[in-house]
Structures are given as C-alpha cells and as structure tokens.
Specification:
With 154 residues, this protein is α+β, with helices and mostly antiparallel strands. It has 4 helices and 7 strands; from the N terminus they run βααβββαβαββ. It has helices spanning 16-31, 45-50, 95-109, 124-132, and strands at residues 7-10, 55-61, 64-75, 78-86, 114-119, 136-141, 144-150. It has a 7-stranded mixed sheet with strand order 1-2-3-4-5-7-6. The longest helix is centred in the N-terminal third of the chain and has 16 residues, at 16-31. It is globular, with a radius of gyration of 15 Å.
Amino acid sequence: MAYDELLIKPFEPSEQADVRRLILEGLGGHFGYIDETLNPDLTDIMASYIVPGNVFLVAYLGSELVGTGALIHEKENIGRVVRVSTDHLHRRKGIATTIMRHLLSIAQQRGYRRVVISTNNGWEDAIGLYKYLGFIEEARNHLGVNMALDLRER
C-alpha cells in the first residue's frame, strides 16, 4: 500500500487496545523492556486525552494501525505533543512527520503560540524529526531533551 494513502483521524474507543499495544511495543523496542506503570494514560485514552479536551490521532494504512500522536493543553497558549509512535515495520516512511504536521495544524487552530515536546536522550530519530519540523532544543539533561516550536513564526 502506498504511503500517500495514509489516513489520519481522531481516536475512537474501539481502538483502545490496538493503540495501547502499538505505543507500548514501540517503547519496549527502544528501551528493551516495558514498564507499564509509567504509562497509566494508555489504560483509558478517552479519559486521559479526549474527555479533558485534548487531541489523540491515529494513522492507518488500509485497516492497519501504523501510528499515533496526541496534543495536550500545557498552559495558556502552549500545547504539548505526546505519544508520537509509529509501528516498527513502517518507520522512516513519513508517518510520524504527517501526524506531527496534523497536530501542529490543530495547535494553530486552537490558538497555541508555542508547542513543546520532550523525548529521551539517545532517541535520535525522534530528535531529528522534531528538528526537521522546526523545533529548537531548549534543554538537555540526563532525563531527556526538551524542545519547542514557536507557531507565530510559521
């Protein structure tokens, strides 16, 4: 299937188990293990994201779930991108880039002036993607990397 047939849409409750699995498998693949206690938001995505008014997107190629991403309200005029994940068989094909562009567009529609994102040190693919999209590294320490994008400059 061609990647130009990628469908990005809002999360639906029927996708709960598949979305949780995709994200946790991605984390497990990166870290070598999964500590589910560090991911309580994935137990109920509707309650964690949708009910509070945030955005959670899923990406499909045909009937196959291949990616996710969420935008949450951080504070006045600032959104935070979280839970960007791509199925390991479909990485480096532009799926995460497309999801991110959708999330940034939604952030602009919501009036956010700035979007922030955090990731772990050593997750160079993610850091590279965010830099490609215009995010600037603001801080780095043993816990990770914090980046931001000023939407007023877009």
